[in-house]
Design goal:
Elements (H helix, E strand, L loop, with lengths): L2 H9 L18 H4 L5 H7 L4 E8 L2 E8 L3 H6 L2 E2 H7 L6 E5 L14 H4 L4 E6 L5 E7 L27 H8 L4 E7 L1 H7 L11 H19 L5 E4 L4 E7 L6 H16 L7 E8 L2 H9 L2
Antiparallel strand pairs: 1-2, 1-6, 2-3, 4-5, 5-6, 7-9, 7-10, 8-9
Length: 292
């Protein structure tokens, strides 16, 4: 990984090895009820490759939380209430369709051309009490039995607990000063789905938010403690890195583009990364995170 590997090595931490899949798609989901895991963390922990959570927004269903989905699929997820009443008549029950079944074709309108070509199986759970639909897309991964599982509750946003980062930042300052960056994703995100013409403007803000939230999760997961990042305003991400050598924003920008290309496509190369300076005091780092 080059640059990112050198950043990890300064903290003495490496990515943990993937765990074995847990039997039961939503098994042991009590952690979610306690508010300790968001949608992306849940899907990642369950080794689900592609998932989307639909909610009723302005009397239309659309994906509000995504994992492993490209921006075109997220934009194309805007769909009518009648569509889901007709295709998923049963509530509180898992419904699964394989690529060999003709009925699955009705759901292809929700997927990008690239993802549609990889589908082996689609699974849905429609909740009766809060108008939520969970979609799981299997593209050849090991099939997990989900017939006996129920739909958990999900945290609505990725939130950063600044107080929990204090120890990590102190550790990082023992390595080097902090290098601060600001990544602006909004132009790239909005460009990534502009080819989907049929979506009314009223839904664009939520589409952008969903794509940004997923992108933020991937970026945050990339940087190992004591390095960190948090959401800023207007689809910006604040990045704090510790390294004994000065990091190049151009090289870091290339890594971010490669990381998010499966989500944003070619527009990922237009992500704007700005250096925001250096600091060697904890308070200065905290001010950077809180301001703006």
């Amino acid at each position: 990984m080059g640059l990112l590997s050198s950043i990890e090595s300064t903290s003495g931490k490496k990515h943990s090895q993937p765990q074995k899949p847990i039997n039961g798609l939503l098994a042991k989901a009590d952690l979610l009820a306690k508010g300790s895991v968001n949608f992306q963390q849940w899907a990642d922990k369950k080794h689900i490759a592609h998932a989307g959570l639909f909610m009723n927004i302005n009397n239309m269903y659309m994906i509000v939380h995504a994992y492993g989905l490209d921006s075109i699929t997220i934009a194309k997820s805007v769909s009518t209430l009648d569509f889901w009443k007709g295709t998923l008549p049963d509530m509180n029950k898992w419904m699964t369709y394989s690529a060999s079944e003709k009925k699955i074709e009705g759901f292809y309108q929700l997927l990008s051309t690239e993802l549609k070509g990889k589908v082996h199986q689609l699974s849905f759970f429609r909740s009766s009490n809060n108008n939520i639909i969970l979609m799981i897309i299997n593209t050849g991964e090991p099939v997990i039995n989900m017939s006996e599982e129920t739909l958990p509750s999900f945290i609505q946003e990725n939130r950063t607990d600044f107080s929990s980062l204090t120890t990590a930042f102190r550790s990082g300052l023992g390595i080097s000063h902090a290098q601060l960056f600001l990544a602006c994703l909004k132009p790239a995100v909005e460009t990534s789905y502009k080819s989907v013409k049929a979506v009314p403007d009223i839904f664009h803000a939520q589409i952008t938010k969903t794509i940004f939230e997923q992108s933020f999760f991937y970026i945050k997961r990339t940087f190992q403690v004591p390095n960190s990042c948090c959401m800023g305003t207007n689809e910006e991400i604040k990045i704090i890195l510790f390294s004994r050598s000065q990091l190049s924003e151009k090289v870091l920008q290339v890594h971010l583009a490669q990381l998010l290309k499966p989500v944003l496509g070619q527009p990922a190369e237009t992500i704007l990364l700005l250096p925001a300076g250096f600091c060697d005091r904890l308070k200065n780092i905290q001010d950077f995170l809180i301001q703006g």
